[in-house]
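To illustrate the input format used throughout this study, we show a single complete record. The first block contains the structure-token representation of the backbone; no residue identities are included at this stage. The design step must infer an amino acid for every position from geometry alone.
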């Protein structure tokens, strides 16, 4: 599996997931968007932004999903294999921020900071 497909598969275990630049017009809440940035061994930690999108009056569901992703990453991060290597996914800092949507008060967004280290030559 390529790096981009491995990253997509990892995020998709939580919610329907889309690269930030490729959210379909007919996407249905909730969903997750992520920046697709890849690298290799010498790239070091690469920061990625992940957004959780919900349509709800409650803060409970988006907060619970952010916690679920945090738990999946764990204290030391998690490893995800891909063809020729692996990526080390870690929580960034700050981990989670609540973002209000000016167009609709029921759109709840969580802005997550994640770092990824690509452990491969290419």
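Output of the design step:
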């Amino acid at each position: 599996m390529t790096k981009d497909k491995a990253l997509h598969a990892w995020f998709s275990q939580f919610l329907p997931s889309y690269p930030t630049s490729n959210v379909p017009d007919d996407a249905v809440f909730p969903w997750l968007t992520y920046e697709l940035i890849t690298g290799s061994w010498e790239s070091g930690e690469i920061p990625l932004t992940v957004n959780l999108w919900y349509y709800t009056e409650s803060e409970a569901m988006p907060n619970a999903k952010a916690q679920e992703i945090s738990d999946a990453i764990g204290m030391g991060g998690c490893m995800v294999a891909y063809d020729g290597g692996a990526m080390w996914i870690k929580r960034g800092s700050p981990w989670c921020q609540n973002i209000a949507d000016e167009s609709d008060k029921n759109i709840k967004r969580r802005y997550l900071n994640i770092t990824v280290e690509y452990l491969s030559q290419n």
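Structural context for interpreting the output: The helical segments are 3-12, 60-73. Strands lie at 17-19, 31-34, 46-55, 78-82, 85-100, 107-119.
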